[in-house]
Specification:
By secondary structure, this protein is an alpha/beta fold. It folds into 2 domains: about 1-155 and about 195-220, NAD(P)-binding Rossmann-like Domain (Rossmann fold, 3-Layer(aba) Sandwich); about 160-190 and about 225-290, UDP-galactose 4-epimerase, domain 1 (Alpha-Beta Complex), CATH 3.90.25.10. It is about 35% helix and about 20% strand. It has 8 helices and 13 strands. The strands form 4 sheets. Strands 3-2-1-4-5-6-11 form a 7-stranded parallel beta sheet, with helices on both faces. Strands 7-10 form a two-stranded parallel ribbon. A two-stranded parallel ribbon has the order 8-13. Helix 2 packs parallel to helix 3 (about 125-145) and helix 6 (about 225-240) packs across helix 8. The radius of gyration is 19 Å and the shape is globular. It starts with a strand and ends with a helix.
Length: about 290
């Protein structure tokens, strides 16, 4: 039996459907704060109440406070709740539990030009610090229980459903739908490593087959794209005309790119092409907006 937290979140919604398809709906439980139609649910009541988890063998802990914008990254109450809820979850009565998959974040790393799992850690926000501490909680719990703990650090994920976050891709789509110009700072040369949400889900599902703790694995894209190239790709998939407003950069361009060799060797051999993933996100957003 698999129990999933965070099943109503951006990644969690996609992951829930994939787990039901792969393992059957009777073998998946959503541990949630409110019922989800079409799935077996256990209400945790603020991570203070757990019931009917005796048969659970695998826990995927995707539920957490995730900042919707930069201003929320140091909301101390919300960030502290990540630690508190993880502690309560690991303390719950799940006698058959043998595997925990914990979704962390790439924000645990110190800035660098090319990041990998071997890069120095240096969380710059309370949110990132809370996720790193939860990684350590999960690993310590697994060591004491003789269980498997797999840490997956999720990177810049895009796809249908991310519009709840103030990120560059959904924000750009929303501005196009509203007939507003897109902003490009400086030359748009800084690069990012984006990964499609369904690739993240495929990697998480594949991690359930690992027979040991393989150490942290970054779920990140392997093909960096500049902001200028991203805007160009957005134009291609939307097929709409829009104005680009060039603005001076407030700081020197800083790349955030990754070596995702461990991801490719262990969990995900092939990524969704950027234009394909952007097209799926655009169609979903365009359809839901009616514009």
């Amino acid at each position: 039996m698999i129990v999933l937290t965070g099943a109503s979140g951006f990644i969690g919604r996609h992951l829930l459907e994939a787990l039901k398809d792969r393992f059957g709906p009777d073998n998946v439980l959503a541990l949630t704060s409110r019922p989800i139609v079409g799935v077996r649910c256990v209400l945790h009541e603020g991570y203070s109440h757990f019931a009917n988890l005796e048969q659970v063998t695998t826990l995927i802990h995707a539920g957490a406070f995730t900042p919707k914008n930069g201003a929320q990254a140091n909301d101390w109450r919300s960030c502290n709740a990540n630690v508190l809820h993880t502690d309560r979850l690991l303390s719950a009565e799940m006698p058959a539990l043998k595997r925990v998959v914990y979704l962390s974040t790439i924000d645990v790393y110190a800035p660098g030009s090319l990041l990998s799992e071997a890069s120095p850690l240096g969380p710059a926000s309370l949110y990132a610090a809370s996720k790193l501490y939860c990684e350590q909680l999960v690993s310590a719990w697994a060591a004491q229980r003789g269980a498997v703990a797999q840490i997956l650090r999720v990177g810049h994920t895009y796809g249908p459903g991310e519009e709840a976050y103030q990120k560059v891709i959904p924000a750009s789509f929303m501005r196009i739908l509203a007939g507003q110009p897109l902003s490009l700072f400086g030359e748009g040369s800084e690069r990012r490593s984006f990964i499609f949400v369904k690739d993240v889900v495929r990697a998480i599902a594949a991690s359930l087959s690992l027979d040991r703790d393989c150490g942290p694995i970054n779920l990140v894209g392997g093909t960096p794209v500049s902001m200028a190239s991203l805007v160009e790709a957005i134009g291609v998939v939307t097929g709409r005309q829009f104005v680009i407003e060039r603005k001076p950069a407030s700081a020197a361009p800083r790349d955030v790119i990754f070596d995702n060799a461990r991801l490719r060797s262990l969990l995900l051999s092939q990524e969704t092409p950027l234009l394909e993933g952007l097209g799926e996100e655009w169609r979903a957003l365009e359809s839901s907006s009616g514009r």
